[in-house]
Amino acid sequence: MATKSPAGEMPFLDHLEELRMRLFWSVGALGLCTMLAFAIVWNYPVVDVIATPIKPYLPDGKLIFTHPADPIAIVLKVAFGLGLAAASPVIVYQLWAFLSPALHPHEKRVVLPVIGGAFALFLTGAYLAVRFAMPAMFDVLYSFQSASLTPMISAREYVGFAVTMCLAFGGTFQLPIVILALTMLGLVTPSSLAKFRKHAAVLSFIVASVITPGDLIIMTLWLGVPLYGLYEVSIVLSWIVHRARQRRARTDEPRIGKAQA
């Protein structure tokens, strides 16, 4: 435990020691979760589950690999992705623990619910990507396939594509929790968010075009539309939280007046 000066400030070397400890726990959590994920991917058909959306469009329902190291590379990539997702609450908590001495009490109360909500929303976005978005996308893309074309999809390329889509959808699903946290901290209001609706719509499709793989407009639409929809949901959540903050402020005013009297 790092010591503090009489003024409540931590010396620079103690800051470094605290940072070293937080990094140690973060890297340790990532390593442990990745090893557990590797064991799961190695012993259970996790890759088959990831390949489920594209199987109906493949000859014999199988992906191919073109390099001897591809199978182990795929397992490692999936294991690292699952390990990072599983360890992310610990990593974010360690970051919060390092920064918490500089936060005000009302800011500290926001952090832990935000961590839990962000993790749940990330898993929800990744699940929706595999369960609904990717099958619908493949249904549209393969509708242009002619009889003279035979799909031969590399497992390595497909897994990279699937991981990117899961990260993209999981990342975009963080928008409501981010705006909710900013509203709870008093940094944004529903009216300010509503004023930027047009800007948010344009920005949603710009972000979607950057983070989605490939250069097809259909992929941008598949992520851009839900992203803007999440912005609208965020405005509603922000309005609910803002109203609650206003009611709490009106309730606290008489108490403050009595205390001062």
Mean pLDDT: 84
Query: Hey, roughly how much beta strand do the residues contain?
Result: under 5%
Show unreliable segments: none
Structural class by secondary-structure content? mainly alpha
Cα-atom Rg, whole angstroms?
A: 23 Å
Q: Number of DSSP strands?
A: 0
Which H/E pattern describes the elements? HHHHHHHHH
Number of helices: 9
The biggest beta sheet, please?
Answer: none
Overall morphology: flat
Overall helicity: over 70%
* Termini separation: 42 Å
Pfam family, one: TatC
GO molecular function: proton motive force dependent protein transmembrane transporter activity
Family: Belongs to the TatC family.
Membrane topology: Multi-pass membrane protein
